[in-house]
Amino acid sequence: MAQTEKKGGLLRKSSASKKPLKEKVVLMYDEIFTTEDPSKCNPRFWEELFLMKVNLEYLESKLEALDGEELMKIKDNINCLFQHCIQALGEDHPIRVVNALQTLCALIRGVHQKNKSTSGFDIINMLVGFDKAELCMKNLMESLDSLLCAEGSESLKSLCLKLLLCLVTVTDNISQNTILEYVMINSIFEAILQILSSPLSRREHGYDAVVLLALLVNYRKYESVNPYIVKLSIVDDEATLNGMGLVIAQALSEYNRQYKDKEEEHQSGFFSALTNMVGSMFIADADEKISVQTNEAILLALYEAVHLNRNFITVLAQSHPEMGLMTTPTSPIPTTPVTPLGTTPPSSDVISSAELPLDADVQTSNLLITFLKYSSIVMQDTKDEHRLHSGKLCLIILTCIAEDQYANAFLHDDNMNFRVNLHRMPMRHRKKAADKNLPCRPLVCAVLDLMVEFIVTHMMKEFPMDLYVRCIQIVHKLLCYQKKCRVRLHYTWRELWSALINLLKFLMSNETVLLAKHNIFTLALMVVNLFNMFITYGDTFLPTPSSYDELYYEIIRMHQNFDNLYSMVLRLSTNAGQWKEPASKVTHALVNIRAIINHFNPKIESYAAVNHISQLSEDQVLEVVRSNYDTLTLKLQDGLDQYERYSEQHKEAAFFKELVRSISINVRKNLAFNTLSQELLLKEFSTIS
Prior knowledge:
Blueprint: E1 4-7, E2 10-13, E3 21-22, H1 24-32, H2 45-49, H3 56-65, H4 68-73, H5 75-89, H6 94-115, H7 123-127, H8 130-149, H9 154-168, H10 180-185, H11 189-197, H12 199-217, H13 227-234, H14 238-267, H15 270-278, H16 283-288, H17 296-308, H18 313-316, H19 348-351, H20 367-378, H21 385-403, H22 405-411, E4 417-418, E5 441-442, H23 443-457, H24 465-485, H25 493-509, H26 511-515, H27 520-541, H28 545-557, H29 559-573, H30 580-589, H31 591-610, H32 618-626, H33 648-651, H34 653-671, H35 679-684
Antiparallel strand pairs: 1-2, 2-3, 4-5
Helix pairs in contact: 3-6, 5-6, 5-8, 6-9, 8-9, 8-11, 9-12, 9-34, 11-12, 11-14, 12-14, 12-17, 14-17, 14-20, 17-21, 20-23, 21-24, 23-24, 23-25, 24-27, 25-27, 25-28, 25-29, 27-28, 27-30, 28-32, 29-30
């Protein structure tokens, strides 16, 4: 018996047949694409259309095949189709609602393709007509809001969110998407919150809801009052905020898990065997191959929550007991192809499980720990543009956290100790740390570890100056809090001091190359002032008096680097070149460090001569330091514990505009594949007559 094949809306027998047969819905689409009103000959045309299974591919390709002029000729029929879709959304018959939602998606995407051409007609006019736009869009948004808030089908809610994402990302630059004016006027903010506050809805739709909210918040955020920004900033419902945090934590956990899986696979594979044979000379190259696509969309959502809503800060430190109580949804969820920037939602098994057991600290994990682990992965390799953007956004989020009084309170809380296993870049001169030996410490220690790790591992030819500046600023803000609140943190401060001195050494060694691209004196000044902060106020926040002694020991031990830095900035500050002013600022900032070196070095040499010792031990040097503090004179430097607060609009607007653009493009690409498949939806309603 001949097999029947279906392709592009055509039904044909595999045996030779005279003409392929078109399925009924395709014939009805063809009627819409004429200049005649299709309901003239068939009054039940629109009623019948929404009982037919949508052929997305055919409808979109038909729209894309027309040029602007041809499309304008059938504008009335397109408007009519759009309006009947909106009417169908209010019907009780779920099949009609499903088909109407699908048709709207195809219409919006198809018309968008035409809008990119030279004809330049307006999307709103083409879809609904200017005269009816306000009422139609109001009805559409109200219908979507009702469907999202109703107790009904989860599949319908999913399709509503897909349609909204389709609507929002119809242009690359969402601020140029005039359709969004109607989404601003007819807010669906409360519907999104309802999804996030309900465990069942959140499990099914949380990811799409969070990404949708992050995009809506970025619509013309600098030009006008965006109601989604205003509303997000005042949300104080605990269940909603925790729900949002849970969705973000699970998406970041999925990334961390994928990376860990690839890392283990990589280590046990062929390349691992090869590196064991020839030594560790290839280790850096080998690990560059471990690559998991970053997730800027979910990171943007985390940023907006942290930046806009002070109440969300509490969510960062809360563990989520419900993570372990979730069960896998009974209905399968269609898988989506992974796109660049990782805008694909986590798979259903991830969303329904506890935070994946990445290490021994899983029982006490929280959103901040998950985020720090994520940051430690994406900040390893900043050569790739997406990872560079991800790394920058991670540092911006940490900047907001480091400025927040409440966040600092729990970061430094001695009663909230965690074992945080950060990913460390493999380097030839250091061994990999044993995960199981990690101590339990306040969370701020993990933040400082992350900053030290970045400082140590990114001294390279393509120097990420902007990220280094942000990194040093975060450390400075944490120190300001410690000084202000007299928090004596038990941390291995020597690692930080050593990293900072090595950074100065790198800047000096590569002066010519770096100065061609960057003002390295800004960074050098920040590093020197961190040391000044320790020198001036260290006795108020370093854990013990011996820690303060060790600071002096490190400065004296590494004095050659500070001497060289002084020589370099003195040379440039006495010349009339472009670097005169920034270099002279570093010269002035070095006054106390030079005073320490010039005061203690003669004393150490004298001690060695008197005691006939060629090389002093650390304890002997510390003994000299302790016995000669009294005669040391230091200058009081103003403003060391002051900093400029983070401001998005004035300094980061261009970065966020480009970031949101790339997220919008990739969300749209993601929707263009199988996420709108009808099979599951129709199966769900197959029992309905």
